[in-house]
Write a structure and sequence with these properties.
The complex is a heterodimer.
Chain A (H helix, E strand, L loop, with lengths): L6 H5 L2 H18 L17 H8 L3 H19 L20 H18 L8
Helix pairs in contact in A: 3-5
Chain B lengths: L3 H14 L2 H11 L10 E5 L2 E6 L5 E8 L11 H7 L10 H10 L3 E6 L4 E8 L3 H14 L4 H20 L2 H14 L21 H11 L5 E6 L3 H11 L23 E6 L5 E7 L8 H10 L13 H7 L4 E9 L4 E9 L1 H19 L5 H20 L1 H15 L5 H9 L3 H13 L3 E6 L7 H4 L11 H16 L19 H4 L4 H14 L3 H11 L4 E6 L2 E7 H15 L4
Parallel strand pairs in B: 2-6, 7-11
Antiparallel strand pairs in B: 1-2, 3-5, 3-6, 4-5, 8-10, 8-11, 9-10, 12-13
Classes of the chains: A mainly alpha, B alpha+beta.
Main location (chain A): mitochondrion
Keywords (chain A): Electron transport, Membrane, Mitochondrion, Mitochondrion inner membrane, Respiratory chain, Transport
Subcellular location (chain A): Mitochondrion inner membrane
C-alpha cells in the first residue's frame, strides 16, 4: 500500500472484518474527503517515485478526472464550503483506481530487487 | 587430465560409433548431393508444424517462425509492434524475469522480422530445451500487451529505430524499390519511417488483435536447429497443447498474391546516395536457377578481402571508385527481386549504374564467357549451400518454407538445377529482364543520380500513341490548312507532316500527269475499242503567243507538248 494501513490485517480475519465494516463506512464519511468530491486514492501523496510512475500510467480520461476532482476540492477548500450534497462522492464511486497501479509497480520493483540479489545454487 | 592421444582416440571412437550414415552422407556429397544433416525433418506435433535438424553441436537454436511479416500486416507498424512485444510481460512471469532467467541459463533471446516472417528465437545450451520451449509457447500465447509497456518500451524503441533508419539511405532505397515493384503487400515498408502515420493504426489493442490472428497453430512453425526430434517433439506436445489452432481475432491477414509492377521512385536525402536497380527475380515457389547464376555473375562482393574482386559489378565499379555495387536475389514465397544496390558518392553511383546497365546489356547479348559462367555457377552453388549451413538464414528460410508451402526450402534440388544453367539460358534471362519493366529507386542527391530513362532501362510501359498527342496533331493539321505556317515548320516535325501526291513527287505538272494516265488507259484497251479511243484522244489544238499586242507564230499544241516533254526529260523532269 502507498500509506500505512491496518487493512490487510483486518481483511485476513473475517470476524474482525465483519465487526469493523459498519464502522469503516462511518469513518470514510467522517474523514470528509467525500464531501469535497474526492476519492480515497486522490489523497495518496504524489511526492514519491512509484506514485509518479503510476500517475503516468493512468488512462487520459482517468488523469483528467483526477485533476478535475482535485481542483474542485481545492476551490471548495479556498472558499470554505462543501459541495452540494448531490455532488458528494458516492460509495460505489469511491473505487481505488491508482492503488492497483502502485501495487503493480512495487511488485515489479520487489521482483527486480530479489532477482538482483539472488543466490545461485547449482543443481549439478 | 586427458592426454592428447586419449582425446583423439575418443574422437575416433565417437566417429566410429556414430555409424556409417554420416560417412555415407559425406560420400554422397562428393557426387553432388547434400549431406543429410543439412536437411530439416518436418512433422506435425499436436497441430504445430515442427522442423528439426541435428548437427550434434552443444547448442540449440529454437525459433517460432510466424507468417506475420510486413506483407501480411493489415495496418502499418503492427508487425514491428508485435516484434517489440516479444518477451514482454506474460500472464505468468514478467519481462524482467524472462530476461534474467534466460541470462542465468546462458541463453539469448531475439525477435526480428522480414517482409514475410516474424521470428521469435532463442539460442541456448542443448540441455535447456524444455525451459526455452515453454518460454516460446508462453510468449506467443500469454503475452499481456499492456498499455504501459506499449508506451514506455515499445513506442520508445520504435522511435529510436525509426530515427536510425531515417538516415540509412540504402535501406530507404531498397524499401522504395520494394514499394514500387510490388505496391501493397510485399511493397509494405519493412520498418515504418518517421513520416509514416501510425496514429490510428498502432496501439496495444491493435497489436493484441494482430497477435490473435498470427499466433495460432496454422500460422506458425517451430524450427529447431541442433535439437533431436525426440526431445523437441516431446516438449512441443506438452507446451504447445493449449495454443489455439486457428485465428482467435477478427483481424484478417493481408494475404494478397504478389504481382511485379516495376517503376521508378526518387527521394531527396542528405545522408548519402543509394541507387537500387531491380528486376523481377526468382521466388521460393518458382526457383529460377538462371537468376541465381546471373546474380552470382554480377556479384559485387569480393571473394578475397580488401580486393575489388573480378565479378561483373566489381569491374563496373572499378571505373568509379567511391561507390559500392552488389547484386542479390531477394527471395520471397511468391515473388523475388533481383536487386543491384549501389551506394557511395553521387557521381560515382551514377557512373557505376551506367556501367552496370551496360554490363547487363552485354550479358544479354551473350558476352559472358564460358569461364565466367563456370565461375558464376560455382559461386551460386556455394552461396546456396553456405546459406543453408550457417545459422540465421536457414532457420528463417526453412521456417518460411514450412509456413508458406508446408515443406522447408531444401537446397538439394536447387543445387541440381543450378548445374543445368547454360550460356544460352543465361542470355535469354538477361534479355528478358532488360526487356521487362525495371524498378529504379534513387535516394540522395537527385541532381546527380540518374533516371531510369537515362540509364537505358524501361521503367514505364510504352503505350502505342497516347490520346492527347493524337488530338493535338489533328488540331495542328486543321489550323495549318486554314493558315499555312509562316516560319519554318521544323520545330514540331510530327505536327506538319503532309500527304504528297505521287505525280507531284515525280515532278510532273497536273496536265502531263493526266495525259500520261489517259494514254496508259487507252493503250490497255482491246484493239477495236482502242482505235476509237485513240481517235477521240487526238488533239488538234493550236495556240499562239501574243507579244506587244501582236500575235506570234501559231503552233500545234501536240507538237509543242512533245517538245516540252523531251525538254523536261532532259532537265530532270521539272516541266
Amino acid at each position: 500500500m502507498s500509506y500505512p494501513s491496518l487493512a490487510p490485517f483486518v481483511l485476513k480475519r473475517p470476524w474482525l472484518r465483519n465487526l469493523l465494516t459498519p464502522f469503516a463506512g462511518w469513518y470514510s464519511n467522517a474523514a470528509g474527503y467525500r464531501q469535497l468530491g474526492l476519492r480515497a486514492d486522490d489523497l495518496i501523496s504524489e511526492e514519491n517515485e512509484d506514485v509518479l510512475k503510476a500517475l503516468k500510467r493512468l488512462s487520459p480520461q482517468e488523469a483528467y478526472d483526477r485533476v478535475y476532482r482535485l481542483r474542485r476540492a481545492i476551490q471548495c477548500s479556498v472558499t470554505h464550503k462543501l459541495l452540494p450534497k448531490d455532488q458528494w462522492t458516492k460509495l460505489d464511486e469511491d473505487i481505488p483506481y491508482l492503488t492497483p497501479l502502485i501495487e503493480q509497480i512495487r511488485a515489479a520493483e520487489k521482483e527486480k530487487e530479489s532477482l538482483d540479489t539472488l543466490t545461485i545454487i547449482k543443481g549439478h | 587430465m586427458l592426454s592428447r592421444t586419449a582425446l583423439s582416440r575418443g574422437a575416433r571412437l565417437a566417429a566410429r560409433r556414430q555409424g556409417g550414415s554420416q560417412l555415407r552422407g559425406y560420400a554422397a556429397a562428393a557426387s553432388s548431393s547434400i549431406p543429410t544433416s543439412f536437411a530439416y525433418e518436418t512433422s506435425d506435433v499436436a497441430g504445430v508444424k515442427v522442423a528439426t535438424r541435428d548437427s550434434r553441436g552443444p547448442t540449440t537454436k529454437l525459433a517460432i517462425v510466424a507468417k506475420a511479416g510486413t506483407r501480411y500486416e493489415p495496418a502499418p507498424g503492427l508487425t514491428v509492434g508485435l516484434e517489440e512485444f516479444a518477451f514482454k510481460n506474460t500472464a505468468s512471469r514478467s519481462a524482467l524475469r524472462i530476461v534474467r532467467e534466460a541470462e542465468l541459463l546462458g541463453g539469448q533471446l531475439a525477435a526480428y522480422h522480414t517482409r514475410e516472417a516474424l521470428v521469435i528465437e532463442a539460442s541456448f545450451l542443448r540441455e535447456d530445451i524444455p525451459y526455452f520451449t515453454e518460454l516460446l509457447a508462453e510468449v506467443i500465447s500469454q503475452t499481456k500487451y499492456t498499455t504501459f509497456e506499449f508506451q514506455e518500451d515499445v513506442e520508445r524503441v520504435l522511435h529510436l529505430k525509426q530515427a536510425r533508419l531515417a538516415s540509412d539511405v540504402s535501406a530507404l532505397a531498397l524499401d522504395a524499390a520494394h514499394s514500387v515493384a510490388f505496391h501493397n503487400g510485399l511493397g509494405n515498408s519493412l520498418y515504418p519511417s518517421p513520416s509514416t502515420p501510425l496514429k490510428g493504426y498502432l496501439n496495444e489493442n491493435a497489436i493484441a488483435d494482430y497477435a490473435g490472428a498470427v499466433y495460432n497453430k496454422s500460422n506458425i512453425a517451430l524450427i529447431g536447429d541442433g535439437a533431436t526430434p525426440q526431445a523437441l517433439h516431446k516438449w512441443t506436445e506438452q507446451f504447445f497443447k493449449s495454443n489455439p489452432s486457428s485465428s482467435t481475432s477478427s483481424v484478417t491477414l493481408n494475404s494478397k498474391a504478389s504481382t511485379y509492377y516495376g517503376g521508378e521512385q526518387r527521394t531527396s536525402h542528405t545522408a548519402g546516395n543509394a541507387l537500387v536497380l531491380a528486376f523481377s527475380g526468382s521466388s521460393f515457389g518458382s526457383f529460377k536457377p538462371e537468376i541465381s547464376v546471373l546474380t552470382a555473375l554480377l556479384g559485387g562482393q569480393p571473394n578475397v578481402k580488401w580486393s575489388p574482386g573480378f565479378s561483373v559489378l566489381s569491374k563496373a565499379n572499378a571505373a568509379a571508385p567511391g561507390a559500392k555495387a552488389s547484386a542479390a536475389n531477394l527471395t520471397y514465397s511468391d515473388a523475388g527481386l533481383l536487386a543491384i544496390q549501389i551506394n557511395g558518392a553521387a557521381a560515382s553511383v551514377r557512373k557505376t549504374a551506367q556501367a552496370t546497365v551496360n554490363a547487363l546489356k552485354s550479358i544479354a547479348e551473350g558476352s559472358a564467357s564460358k569461364e565466367d559462367l563456370a565461375k558464376a555457377i560455382a559461386r551460386a552453388k556455394f552461396d546456396a549451400l553456405d546459406a543453408s549451413q550457417s545459422g540465421v538464414s536457414t532457420l528463417l528460410s526453412a521456417g518460411s518454407g514450412i509456413v508458406q508451402t508446408g515443406k522447408p526450402f531444401q537446397i538439394a534440388e536447387t543445387v541440381q538445377s543450378i548445374n543445368g544453367v547454360t550460356a544460352e539460358k543465361l542470355k535469354t534471362v538477361a534479355k528478358a529482364l532488360l526487356d521487362g519493366k525495371a524498378t529504379v529507386a534513387a535516394v540522395g542527391d537527385l541532381h546527380v543520380l540518374p533516371y531510369a530513362e537515362e540509364l537505358g532501362l524501361k521503367s514505364t510501359v510504352k503505350t502505342p500513341r497516347p490520346y492527347h498527342i493524337l488530338s493535338r496533331l489533328d488540331f495542328a493539321s486543321i489550323e495549318q490548312r486554314n493558315n499555312p505556317p509562316k516560319q519554318s515548320p521544323q520545330h514540331n516535325p510530327q505536327a506538319t507532316v503532309k500527304m504528297v501526291f505521287a505525280w507531284k513527287a515525280a515532278g510532273l505538272t497536273y496536265n502531263r500527269y493526266l495525259a500520261v494516265a489517259s494514254r496508259v488507259v487507252r493503250r490497255s484497251l482491246k484493239d477495236d475499242k482502242r482505235v476509237a479511243a485513240e481517235r477521240r484522244g487526238e488533239m488538234d489544238l493550236r495556240f499562239a503567243k501574243w507579244e506587244n499586242g501582236k500575235m506570234g507564230e501559231t503552233k500545234n499544241l501536240a507538237d509543242a507538248n512533245a517538245a516540252a516533254s523531251v525538254e523536261s526529260a532532259k532537265t530532270g523532269g521539272v516541266a
